[in-house]
């Protein structure tokens, strides 16, 4: 087991998925679907169903919930943005930038976690939405659980005051930087350009605007003994940074999309496979919404009350 790699995840299977026009303004990775609304929704439902099955076959505990779309939640498939879990029984709820995303928070998921895991407290930051302060969970922050660093790209979805509150409550050091994608636009979520695993990290160092800051990011990761694998802007666009390491009874795996896996170089694959098996998931429809596998998986870093399989 690894403190960085959870062995259980929460997933939400959408029934009315569509790329969200409300979030397209600052998410340059988002693309409109060329299929009908019904076909897009059906394909997204099938992709999540298959992804959950593949993860379970790999020995990962998957808690799969359904979203019927009645509350107009087109991005419900990305639960890692509205909540996160932490060792010691702590859960955080986050303030979301777009109004439609605020409707994704679900008490039934929180109650399930309380029932099956040891939850001591829930720290709710969602009230900050009324003050125009946003912090979209482990999309806005990529957490190094070993060194207690919260790597955060500045964006509409990562307010410094909200980040400071989280860092104080959860004992993380915030390390903040400006980013630019291939078109010079700020990258909306940190987890699109960065993945921290137990023994390696995928990072788009060239997307960090200040070279000195990029060097500091690299140094902080290498101080923990990790090998830093720089990824290109094209690999960022292919969601190579939007991956998550998970723990299974057979060892660690790196869950990522088939598109992301195909973008990796042979040298990058060798480093990754030294400590984690690649586990590609085919989610091209989901990726139209501008997020990929990491966004789809909310890691469970809580102690189970009993077997949750």
Descriptive key words:
29% helix, three-stranded mixed β-sheet, single chain, 23% strand, globular, L-arginine/glycine Amidinotransferase, Chain A
How would you describe this structure to a colleague?
GO terms for molecular function: transferase activity. Residues 32-44 have a biased composition (Basic and acidic residues). This protein has 309 residues and is an alpha/beta fold. It has helices spanning 37-57, 99-102, 107-116, 137-140, 160-170, 211-222, 233-237, 258-263, 266-273, 284-287, 293-296; strands spanning 8-14, 61-67, 83-86, 90-93, 121-124, 141-144, 149-153, 173-177, 194-196, 200-203, 227-230, 244-248, 251-257, 277-281, 298-299. It has a single domain (8-299), classed as L-arginine/glycine Amidinotransferase, Chain A. The chain is built from eleven helices and 15 strands. A three-stranded mixed β-sheet has the order 2-1-15. The radius of gyration is 18 Å and the shape is globular.
């Amino acid at each position: 087991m690894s403190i960085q790699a959870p062995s259980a995840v929460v997933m939400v299977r959408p029934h009315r998925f569509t790329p969200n026009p409300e979030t397209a303004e600052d998410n340059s990775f988002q693309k409109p679907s060329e299929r009908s609304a019904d076909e897009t929704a059906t394909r997204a439902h099938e992709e999540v169903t298959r992804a959950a099955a593949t993860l379970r076959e790999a020995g990962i505990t998957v808690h799969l919930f359904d979203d019927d779309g009645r509350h107009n939640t087109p991005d419900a498939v990305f639960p890692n943005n509205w909540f996160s879990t932490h060792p010691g029984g702590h859960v955080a709820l986050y303030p979301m930038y777009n109004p439609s995303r605020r409707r994704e928070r679900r008490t039934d998921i929180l109650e399930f976690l309380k029932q099956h895991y040891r939850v001591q407290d829930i720290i709710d930051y969602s009230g900050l939405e009324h003050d125009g302060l946003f912090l979209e969970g482990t999309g806005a922050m990529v957490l190094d659980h070993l060194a207690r660093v919260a790597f955060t790209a500045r964006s509409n979805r990562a307010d410094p005051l909200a980040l400071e509150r989280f860092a104080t409550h959860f004992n993380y050091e915030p390390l903040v930087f400006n980013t630019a994608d291939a078109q010079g636009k700020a990258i909306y979520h940190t987890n699109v350009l960065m993945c921290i695993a137990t023994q390696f990290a995928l990072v788009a160092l060239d997307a960090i605007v200040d070279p000195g800051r990029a060097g500091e990011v690299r140094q902080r990761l290498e101080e923990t003994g990790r090998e830093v694998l720089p990824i290109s802007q094209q690999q960022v666009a292919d969601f190579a940074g939007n991956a998550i390491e998970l723990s299974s009874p057979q060892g660690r795996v790196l869950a990522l999309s088939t598109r992301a896996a195909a973008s990796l170089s042979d040298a990058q694959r060798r480093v990754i496979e030294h400590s984690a098996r690649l586990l590609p998931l085919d989610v091209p429809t989901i990726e139209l919404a501008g997020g990929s596998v990491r966004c789809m998986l909310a890691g469970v870093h809580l102690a189970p009350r009993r077997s949750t399989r």
